[in-house]
Specification:
The complex is a heterodimer. Chain A is of the alpha+beta class. Chain A is about 25% helix and about 20% strand. In chain A, strands 3, 9, 13, 14, 15, 16, 17 and 18 form an eight-stranded mixed beta sheet that branches. Chain A has a four-stranded antiparallel beta sheet with strand order 2-1-8-5. Chain A has a two-stranded parallel ribbon with strand order 4-12. Classes of the chains: A alpha+beta, B mainly alpha. The interface between A and B is large, with 44 and 44 residues. Chain B: InterPro entries: SAGA_su_Sgf11, SCA7_dom, SGF11.
């Protein structure tokens, strides 16, 4: 008797089968769809960890070469050929394929296609893209199929011309979301807002809009889903940019140099109470009349991946130009001050400083930056992406080079991608991935 | 651990120690045991060391961080020859030109609707008589430009390829050649050489790449330094059309300079003792037409001497180039005449 724990094959097999049965039972009787412990929707099957059999062990022993996604390895990085003014698309692809949670989803092959013709499914193409980009192949990939599919499914983007990366991102997310039908755990058919596809789970946040009637102080609240936050930047002729004196510095650890706008400044402006003025009176339900009001935007629900978009391209009646004002953005971001729950302290004009508590729920890490060089009419997009904890790379179409954190933080910034540091347990599908981003 | 009702105050230190120790051990076990079992199981079943990387692989996939190289150790900008297959028409297309191709292929481009309309119009006219075809010729005359060469090519292929009428209509358009919209020019995918007259071909080859694509059977309209084709290919094309004496215009040093050196051209012309009028000025955009009218006969099939041919091809370069130089802003500078000419003349 060796007194050691033993693992008997037959008993394990029986255990596995019984477990599977139990889960199936659970799935079919469960009314709370979000508590389903299965990753394959509707089938009640659990994805077990792969455990090698004896012949597999032997084979692996004979073939010792391994390809791993590990730091200082090129696996996971690959250039993209420019198909003719498609640098905007290449940057978004780089950002999406380096989104940790999305990477885990696709590399574990979780997409189940239910499109009538899979060759037209953008999610399938996305899956294929991940395979290509993580293959370790040093020669750049030609994303012609992706372009073709996007043009078919998002007609407004079709055409050989320079385009906006942000517009492409939103359109791509929209098509992916529409094609994700097969992965839904339980999409309520009549309510599109309750879609549970991977895109919505990752990118959709809830933007709360509170309109306060100035007469009766009644508040009317609506929550809209959003995939990104578009921020005004100083220097545009239409926006009014108040720099309140005595504001706190380094709310988010940004190097606060007087005169330099930070991302936090932009967010603060975005979430400030705004008086709507006498020309925009709202009908108040409480007073039953048209009254002046103030409106305030805050985040009700934070997405797993937050995308910030600086409105640098001005298309006003006066002029069309690009605003190149430098805006400093941090590596780590705490969204707590901009939540709906922090509103009371905002009313007094104070910005609630995040405490050093263990509450990491609202903390984000930067993982991708898309930059634009040039003018409104003609320019070039490049991106910085984060690979592993502290390695950054510059992606310029087919050429990937190593970059320093300083390069990234000094860049102008057009689209910023932040990933939640710790994932919450509200969604079973998300939890199952066991992802700890950085 | 027993759940006893105990009063902690009555215990001595050692007992408290023991209790604290037990609690501590419990907590440690709770947190580690799961992990320990996992590792134990992995070792016992033999898959614990499976995903260790071997040193060979580590070297293969190591990130390179040197100036001028990407992370794979490759030099920048070597990917011009990448190709892909169009999902719509199944043709093999150069990757960097895929987007403009797809736009036309799917019928989304600016010219696509015009091209489509013409095709419809042409298919309606196919059944008509010869005279009607002539009418078509005239109707379409005003729209001749390289940007719409596709529709023109289609139109021509409907007719008798040996029709003398065709080359005549082309001759009239020679002047327009140099006036054609540079942007349309650069967007066209190629020219079908069958439709071109010999003098047109010659002038074309002096300013464009001209290599015939295997897939489309059309000539490349990009610059003489177009990266898609090699100099070898360009020489071969000129060889094929203009005979073994054809010279590939030298462009290496002069491409970035947009200004055309007028004085060289003028000096050359005077030295060559042009038969024709001396009022040829470099800024005359109709100069190529002029040269033709002067009986240079670049279009004739006369068996000229080798020397003459070379001389003429370069002069037509000068002629056309000067025309181009005045009207276009973005055309690369045409090559300065090579010393070889001077040798021949003297």
């Amino acid at each position: 008797m060796c007194k050691d724990y033993v693992y008997d094959k037959d008993i394990e097999q029986i255990a596995k089968e019984e477990q599977g049965e139990a889960l199936k039972l659970q799935a079919s009787t469960s009314t709370e769809v979000s508590h389903q412990q299965c990753s394959v929707p509707g089938l009640g099957e659990k994805y077990p960890t792969w455990e090698t059999t004896k012949p597999e062990l032997e084979l692996l022993g004979l073939n010792p070469r391994r390809r791993r996604i590990a730091s200082s390895f090129t696996i996971g990085l690959r250039g993209l050929i420019n198909l003719g003014n498609t640098c905007f698309m290449n940057c978004i692809v780089q950002a999406l394929t380096h989104t940790p949670i999305l990477r885990d989803f696709f590399l574990s092959d979780r997409h189940r296609c239910e499109m009538p013709s899979p060759e037209l499914c953008l999610v399938c193409e996305m899956s294929s893209l991940f395979r290509e980009l993580y293959s370790g192949n040093p020669s750049p990939h030609v994303p012609y199929k992706l372009l073709h599919l996007v043009w078919i499914h998002a007609r407004h983007l079709a055409g050989y011309r320079q385009q906006d990366a942000h517009e492409f991102l939103i359109a791509a997310l929209d098509v992916l979301h529409r094609h994700c039908k097969g992965d839904d755990v339980g999409k309520v058919a009549n309510n599109p807002n309750h879609c549970n596809c991977i895109i919505d789970q990752i990118f959709t946040g809830g933007l709360q809009s509170d309109v306060t009637c100035q007469a009766c102080h009644g508040v009317s609240t609506t929550i809209d889903p959003c995939w990104d936050i578009s921020l005004d930047v100083p220097g545009s002729c239409t926006s009014f940019w108040p720099m309140s004196p005595g504001r706190e510095s380094s709310v988010n650890g940004e190097s606060h140099i007087p005169g330099i706008t930070t991302l936090t400044d932009c967010l603060r402006r975005f979430t400030r109470p705004e008086h709507l003025g006498s020309s925009a009176k709202i009908k108040c339900g409480g007073c039953q009349s048209y009254q002046e009001s103030t409106k305030q935007l805050t985040m009700k629900k934070l997405p797993v991946v937050a995308c910030f978009h600086f409105k640098r391209f001005e298309h006003s009646a006066k002029q069309r130009r690009k605003i190149t004002t430098y805006i400093s953005f941090p590596l780590e971001l705490d969204m707590t001050p901009f939540m709906a729950s922090s509103k009371e302290s905002r009313m007094n004009g104070q910005l609630q400083l995040p405490t050093n508590s263990g509450n990491n729920e609202n903390k984000y890490s930067l993982f991708a930056v898309v930059n634009h060089q040039g003018t409104l009419e003609s320019g070039h997009y490049t991106s910085f992406i984060r690979h592993h904890r502290d390695q950054w790379f510059k992606c310029d179409d087919a050429v990937i080079t190593k970059a320093s954190i300083k390069d990234v933080l000094d860049s102008e910034g057009y689209l910023l991608f932040y990933h939640k540091q710790v994932l919450e347990h509200e969604s079973e599908k998300v939890k199952e991935m066991n992802t700890q981003a950085y | 651990m027993k759940m006893e009702e105990m009063s902690l105050s009555g215990l001595d230190n050692s007992k408290l120690e023991a209790i604290a120790q037990e609690i501590y051990a419990d907590l440690v076990e709770d947190s580690c045991l799961g992990f320990c079992f996992e590792v134990h199981r992995a070792v016992k079943c033999g898959y614990f060391f499976l995903d260790d990387t071997d040193p060979d692989s580590m070297k293969d996939f190591e990130i390179v961080d040197q100036p001028g190289l990407d992370i794979f150790g490759q030099v920048f900008n070597q990917w011009k020859s990448k190709e892909c297959v169009c999902p719509n028409c199944s043709r093999s297309i150069a990757a960097s030109r895929f987007a403009p191709h797809l736009e036309k292929c799917l019928g989304m481009g600016r010219n696509s609707s015009r091209i489509a309309n013409r095709r419809i119009a042409n298919s309606n006219n196919m059944n008509k008589s010869e005279s009607d075809q002539e009418d078509n010729d005239d109707i379409n005359d005003n729209d001749w430009s390289y940007g719409s060469e596709k529709k023109a090519k289609k139109r021509k292929s409907d007719k008798n390829p040996n029709s003398p009428r065709r080359s005549k209509s082309l001759k009239h358009k020679n002047g327009e050649l140099s006036n054609s919209d540079p942007f349309k020019y650069s967007n066209s995918t190629g020219i079908s050489y069958e439709t071109l007259g010999p003098e047109e071909l010659r002038s074309l080859l002096t300013t464009q790449c001209g290599v015939i694509s295997e897939h489309t059977k059309k000539m490349c309209t990009r610059s003489l330094r177009c990266p898609q084709h090699t100099d070898e290919q360009r020489r071969a094309v000129r060889n094929f059309f203009l005979g073994p004496s054809a010279v590939l215009p030298e462009v290496e040093s002069s491409l970035d300079n947009d200004s055309f050196d007028m004085t060289d051209g003028q000096a050359l012309i005077s030295r060559l003792q042009w038969d024709g009028s001396s009022d040829l000025s470099p800024s005359d955009s109709g100069s190529s037409k002029t040269s033709e009218n002067q009986g240079w006969g670049l279009g004739t099939n006369s068996s000229e001497s080798r020397k003459t041919k070379k001389k003429k091809s370069h002069l037509s370069l000068v002629g056309t180039a000067s025309g181009l130089g005045s009207t276009k802003k973005k055309k690369p500078k045409p090559p300065a005449p090579t010393p070889g000419i001077y040798d021949d003349i003297n």
